[in-house]
Amino acid sequence: MRWRSQNVSILCLLVWLSLGLEAQSSWVPKVRSWITANEQPVMRELQELLAIPNVASDRANVRKNAEHLRTLFTKRGFSVELLETPGNPLVYAELRTPGASRTLLIYSHYDGQPVDPKGWQQPDPFTPLLRDGRLYARSASDDKSPIIMTLAAVDALKAAGEAPSSNIRVILDGEEEAGSPSLVPAIAKYRDKLSADLMVILDGPQHSSGRPTIAYGARGIARVDITVFGPKVGVHSGNYGNWIANPAQRLALLLASMKNEDGRILVAGWTDGIAPLSPEEKAMAAAVPDDAAGMLRAFGVAAPEIAYPRLQEALQYPTLNVRGMASSFVGAGARTIIPDSATASIDVRLVKETRAEAMIEKIRAHVRKQGYHIVEGVPDDATRAKYPKIARLATFGDGTDAFRTSPLDPQAKALAAAIRQATGVEPVHLRTLGGTVPISPFIQALGFPAVLVPTVNFDNNQHEENENLKLTNLWEGILTVAAILRM
Amino acid sequence: MRWRSQNVSILCLLVWLSLGLEAQSSWVPKVRSWITANEQPVMRELQELLAIPNVASDRANVRKNAEHLRTLFTKRGFSVELLETPGNPLVYAELRTPGASRTLLIYSHYDGQPVDPKGWQQPDPFTPLLRDGRLYARSASDDKSPIIMTLAAVDALKAAGEAPSSNIRVILDGEEEAGSPSLVPAIAKYRDKLSADLMVILDGPQHSSGRPTIAYGARGIARVDITVFGPKVGVHSGNYGNWIANPAQRLALLLASMKNEDGRILVAGWTDGIAPLSPEEKAMAAAVPDDAAGMLRAFGVAAPEIAYPRLQEALQYPTLNVRGMASSFVGAGARTIIPDSATASIDVRLVKETRAEAMIEKIRAHVRKQGYHIVEGVPDDATRAKYPKIARLATFGDGTDAFRTSPLDPQAKALAAAIRQATGVEPVHLRTLGGTVPISPFIQALGFPAVLVPTVNFDNNQHEENENLKLTNLWEGILTVAAILRM
Question: Nearest CA of chain A to the CA of B474: how many Å?
């Protein structure tokens, strides 16, 4: 029964996904022709933007970027403002469409990761280099090219005699690589400018299949270091071994109590509030063309976690990941002691139903349930004398909550349909990204739906040396953004 | 029934322990007087010996020590030889006693730990400093003063008109702090010189009660680092969290499978061959005047391991101690990844029944039983593709086996009785030390009983800065060694 209803659901989803694959809009060939004819000026515009250094802490150059962007958007008829913040300015550009009943807020960021030229195969990461169909420069993919795609899409539509079908608002962040500290505070001051029916985040890499990609959410993150205390100072493992308890062993037992051999998390209430995936959601996950075997081979791993054999389903649930562990020394320099403490650094990837603070609280309750007295700082003598098991939980900031928009949201559906119709390809639908985007709190504070439309190649060396953009992604990206403008 | 027989046994032991407490030998008052009268020359002799630097790697100065010792022993009528080795020489001194039916081999070492003068409260650790009844210098306690005690004991007995009751052989190690690499190889060449009925090791600190101490054994040690492998390189904890297994979590589960919350070791066969302590042995352990509460307070620990609430009983069993752990980073520098590997460094303190190699093999079998494929080095791609769980075990040398002499051995009993009679104090009897002595393999290779008679103060800062000897320990030590010579 269950099997039958699930299969019917998958069928419905596939029907829904393929709706409209046939009907390509009439402006598409014109936009494609424009792109082919205008590769040189688009490239020039991108290269000029990339030539302005954009490390968030380099405030003078970041402002030059903002001024340059003001010019570029003004040229297309946007009304532009630099929204000042305590940090770098937000570039705000608006293009009103008479009679439009929908407002889109397009988000990209114009700052980039720090650079260390040593690792680059070109003298200067801010002097773009074209090689083998890719443009190499800092921010070539993350995230200046989506800005150029937006500008070119406006130009291309105009040349095709088309205008956007929505009011377009563009917000360009100058501090994304620094965690976007100014976005949420800006809402209080600029809420009227920032309101819309759908936020479209043009950032991040496409699915590795190279198909157009829509991500309807991103997991959040919370971080906590758990330290188990042993003797005040490391004591001789011979003189006291078997008698003084070992904090590294206790930490191992504590971690083992939190997650089992299958990768199943045992902390009470860990998945509270998360409904099992519906047949539609399962079908959506199953439709993602992940090359699981290839990924496992690349990572050198024989098999995934038993609890979550499918990647896309694994990403729908919160994690409990030991990202680091430390206690005294290992290797040739190890000392024969019972260490004074042992620490595990944990990150928890959150989903929409599991908020950062609540998850840290569940971990705290779990640690208590294992018999630990929890301290702040370092336990004093009286505490040490009273409690046989002592631990500390140190969090790093408040964490970042997840966001997730329903793929059945009318605006999200319209966007998906527009991309499908324009490109002639069924987009890859990701119910959520596994990672975390700093824009999450901004999305939640604004309170309207948001989707990510990543357009750059997955192998773009984002954040690393030799960051690059595949030019085919640039050209397809212009079409994708045009579709969004025309949705 | 059991209770009654145990109490009878304890009674027997106490009777045995107190036998002869009344009968003090006639030479004792004379030796005590000699000591009082000769504090100055004994101190001078010790200070002269301490003034010769003795770090094992400083071979020129170490040889000066050996030559100086040759002179000191020759002066007392010993026939002395420097036994050459590939490393530093062993100083061998023999004093034959006509008609003696017993031969004692007295072991001390004349090398010392490296020094860093910065931490010392005196300009030069090799210029002894007398302060508050203690002599501060490198090797003041570890282990030059027992050599001076031996020389002074011979002088004192001679002045009292007494000769040793045994043939006395003295072997002085010049590489103890470097692990005594030359001792076992020396046996093949010098076996006739090194044979005896009992080895008496004059090294290490007395029990903290300050009572004369006899240790009948010492635990051994084996070391192994266990590394659990994850993905080839650390992978993004968001993109792959819940799907790619975490090696730090797996290591925690592995360690948790090896030892439980109570401190009980779960590795199969861990205590095979170890008979439960007999009532006599339990009584012996119970008679050790450990200040458990004081130690726990000093260490800042509320309670000992549940499996081994009594220190002296805890030391009778092999340990499994996580001396260090490492995986990626913790704290503010932690990265949000699933790490590529996680390592626990383990030391196993051995008892006589559990040999180093066999215990490592038991750990290896345990790891296999948990589903791990064990590799040498780093797993290659084919291995990674084949085995879901991969671990490496790296040992550090062959380990050092334990030694233990029965307190009921006739020679050991005679030694205990002699010390008891001379000092008028019941010695502290330690069935085994918790720690490991590098002389263990030498004892086993020689094959005759051995006991440790530590004579220096427990708070001597051994191996550290400001190493010191309490002068009262020097004077009582001379009497103790005289008792051994007269046993």
Answer: 24
The whole model's pTM is what? Answer: 0.92
This complex has an ipTM of 0.92
SS3 A107: strand
- Could you tell me which chain A residue has the CA closest to the CA of B336? A323
* CB contact A213 to B (< 8 Å): no
Nearest to B241 among A249, A299, A321 (CB): A321
Query: What does the alpha-carbon distance between residue B49 and residue B126 come to, in Å, rounded to a whole number?
Result: 9
Mutate to test the interface with A, among B228, B345, B367, B387 (most CBs of A within 10 A): B345
User: What's the rounded Cα separation, in Å, for the pair B164 and B95?
Assistant: 9
Instruction: Write out pLDDT tens, residues B59-107.
Output: 999 999 999 999 999 999 999 999 999 999 999 999 999 999 999 999 9
CB–CB contact A324 B330 (8 Å): yes
* pLDDT score, position B245: 98
Long-range contacts of range B39-47, CB-CB < 8 Å, 24 or more positions apart?
A: B39/B471, B39/B475, B42/B148, B42/B152, B42/B474, B42/B478, B43/B130, B43/B135, B43/B471, B43/B474, B45/B72, B45/B148, B45/B151, B45/B152, B46/B128, B46/B135, B46/B140, B46/B144, B46/B145, B46/B148, B46/B474, B47/B128, B47/B135, B47/B137
Q: What is the pLDDT of residues A19-40, one digit of tens each?
A: 544 456 799 999 999 999 999 9
CB neighbours of B55 closer than 8 A, spacing ≥ 6? B61, B62, B111, B112, B113, B114, B115, B177
Q: Is the peptide bond before B143 cis (omega within 30 degrees of 0)?
A: yes
Residue B22 has pLDDT above 50, yes or no: no
Q: Does B384 touch chain A (CB under 8 A)?
A: yes
Burial degree of B133 (CB within 10 A; 0-12, 13-18, 19+): exposed
A chain contacts of residue B256, beta-carbon cutoff 8 Å: 252-253, 255-257
Which parts of A215-287 fold into alpha helices (H)? Answer: 237-240, 247-258, 279-287
Q: Are B328 and B234 in contact (CB under 8 A)?
A: yes
**Residue B228 at interface with chain A, using a CB cutoff of 8 Å:** no
Strands A198-201 and B235-236, bridge-based pairing: unpaired
What pLDDT score does A398 carry?
87
Cα-Cα-Cα-Cα torsion B299, A376, A266, B304, nearest 10 degrees, comes to 10
Helix-strand-coil split of chain B, %, nearest 5: 40, 20, 40
Q: Work out the percent of chain B whose per-residue pLDDT is above 70.
A: 95
Q: Phi then psi for B113, rounded to 5 degrees? A: -70, 155
**Average model confidence (pLDDT) for chain A?**
94
Chain B residue nearest residue A437, CA to CA: B238
Picking from A348-352, B10-14, B200-204, B388-392, which range would have the lowest pLDDT averaged per residue? Answer: B10-14
pLDDT digits (tens, 9 = 90+) for A225-242: 999 999 999 999 999 999
pLDDT in tens, A174-205: 999 999 999 999 999 999 999 999 999 999 99
Rounded CA gap, A304 and B150, in Å?
Answer: 67
CB contact under 8 A, B252 and A251: yes
Q: Are A100 and A165 in contact (CB under 8 A)?
A: yes
A237 neighbors A338 (Cβ within 8 angstroms) = yes
**Interface with A, mutate which of B321, B340, B384, B440 (most A CBs under 10 A):** B321
